[in-house]
Structures are given as C-alpha cells and as structure tokens.
C-alpha cells in the first residue's frame, strides 16, 4: 500500500494535467495532448527504441551470466575468488558513473580509440567509429550489460544451488541423457523459468532508465524516459501536458506487463515434476 499510493497519486496528477483539468495553461478538459502524442511518430520510435535496448541488453546479459555460472560456478561460491570480486565491482557504481566510464572507453577520444591509434590500426584517431551517441545505442547497451550481467550471474548461481541443478542433471544423465540434452532440457529451463519474473522486471527497468541514455544516447531516437523529461523541462509550457501524457501511456504499458507477470497463470512457480516431462520430450 505504501508503494501503490505515491505511484497512484502521481499517475492521477499526470493524467489530470494531460487532459487539461489542472496546470498553468489549462483551458478545461481536452484530449488534444493525448492525440498529439499518439499521432507523433517520435513517441512510437522512442517506445520501440527503448524496447530494443532493453531486449538486446538483457538477452546478452543472460547469455553472459549463464556462461559465467556454468563454467565458473565453483569460483562464484568461493568468497576469495577473483571471479567473485570482479562480479561485485560493477554493482558498487551508480548508473551515471557507469555511463561516464563507457564514454571514456568508447568515445573518439577514449581509451579504445587511443589504443587502436597507437597500434597503427587507424591513421587518425578521428576515424574511430562513433560508438557513443550512435544510432544503434552501442554504448548504452554496453553500460546496461555491464550493470546487469553481475546481478544475473549472482541470481543464476543462487538458483543453481537452490534447485539442486547438479543433482537433477546427474539423474537425467543416469537415465541416458547426454550433457547437451541435460543442459537444454534441464539446466536452462529450470533456471530461466525460476528467473522469468526477475528478467521481465529488468526489461522494464532498462526501458525506464534515464541517466545512461541521457549521456550516451542521441537526440533522435530517444529512449522514452529521456523524451518525457525533455518535454517536461522545456521552456515551451505547452509541451508539459504532452510529457505527462507520455508518462501516463508508459505507466499503462508497464502496468499491463506487471499484470500479466503477476496475475497470469503462466507465472506459477516451477516444481520438480517438469523434470520427467522435459526429459521425455
């Protein structure tokens, strides 16, 4: 309840502002701001771009985290291992610090460009490709992956122990399954099924990120949070209702995702019984 009240209050305020009921320049009830947002291609491009950044970064982070867990799970358990220390380091830094680090690494005057230029691969440092503020969001993806992968690795490592994956894998192999079959029919389904809700919430988290795309992103397309904040902070007061309309639409979108996550039948917990079904398949 303590969480719902502030969010609900903010949504009501944003909605009333977006329909002209309250606000500095309100002239009474109107849906023109919503119509302007829904018919503006920049809103849909921003929503699609945010979804692209979230899906790609989370997918790559999952692959990297699974690789770390499957090949270095013993090192993750040990508190004195180098792998364990390296995983915890990125979790200590806020998003804006990671964004600044990525800029120093991947910009035209950054670390990588200087190394490549020093090795003679590039004749001039200015010929280094644009990897910050680029169309495909390379530096944004890099920053998100750098922040998310350690968390997923720790999460998957804990699930690996809690679900006794080694025991389930040994049972499957004793019944005739190969290592590849055990991996794709036992290990990965169990881990990913248990982590499904967390993965989905991280997709929402990345879509809503602000500091990283603000520093490393382009003016067009922008991620949805940057688009809303810039409209809110512009000198043109007529853009403020549109900013609140964007916020309301995004909150509705996120609310639908959370509804299907927590209230659909597909979000029930995985039991040990699917072991035999997966193996029989």
From TrEMBL:
Protein's cellular compartments: Cell inner membrane
Keyword tags: Cell inner membrane, Cell membrane, Membrane, Transmembrane, Transmembrane helix, Transport
InterPro entries (alphabetical): MetI-like, MetI-like_sf
Main location: membrane
Domain ABC transmembrane type-1 intervals: 47-262
Recorded topology in the membrane: Multi-pass membrane protein
Keyword DNA repair: no
One GO-annotated biological process of the protein: transmembrane transport
GO CC terms, sorted: plasma membrane
Residue intervals passing through the bilayer: 7-29, 49-72, 84-106, 140-160, 197-216, 243-263
Origin superkingdom: Bacteria
Protein name: ABC transmembrane type-1 domain-containing protein
Annotated organism of origin: Aquimarina aggregata
């Amino acid at each position: 309840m303590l969480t719902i009240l502030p969010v609900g209050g903010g949504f009501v305020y944003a909605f009333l502002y977006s329909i002209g009921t309250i606000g500095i320049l309100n002239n009474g009830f109107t849906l023109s701001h919503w119509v302007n947002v829904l018919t503006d291609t920049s809103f849909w491009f921003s929503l699609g771009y945010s979804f692209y950044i979230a899906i790609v970064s989370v997918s790559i982070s999952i692959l990297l985290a699974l690789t770390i867990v499957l090949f270095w799970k013993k090192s993750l358990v040990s508190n004195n291992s180098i792998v364990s220390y390296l995983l915890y380091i990125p979790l200590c830094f806020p998003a804006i610090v990671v964004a600044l680090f990525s800029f120093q690494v991947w910009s035209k005057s950054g670390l990588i460009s200087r190394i490549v230029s020093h090795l003679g691969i590039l004749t001039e440092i200015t010929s280094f490709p644009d990897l910050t503020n680029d169309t495909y969001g390379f530096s944004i993806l890099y920053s998100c992956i750098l922040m998310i992968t350690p968390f997923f690795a720790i999460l998957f490592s804990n699930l690996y122990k809690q679900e006794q994956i080694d025991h389930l894998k040994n049972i499957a192999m004793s019944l005739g399954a190969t290592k590849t079959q055990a991996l794709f029919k036992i290990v990965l389904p169990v881990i990913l099924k248990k982590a499904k809700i967390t993965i989905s919430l991280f997709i929402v988290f990345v879509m809503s990120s602000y500091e990283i795309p603000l520093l490393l992103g382009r003016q067009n397309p922008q991620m949805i949070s940057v688009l809303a904040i810039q409209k809110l902070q512009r000198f043109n007061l007529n853009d403020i209702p549109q900013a609140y309309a964007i916020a309301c639409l995004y909150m509705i979108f996120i609310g639908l995702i959370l509804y299907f996550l927590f209230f659909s039948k597909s979000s029930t917990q995985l039991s040990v019984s699917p072991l035999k079904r997966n193996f029989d398949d």
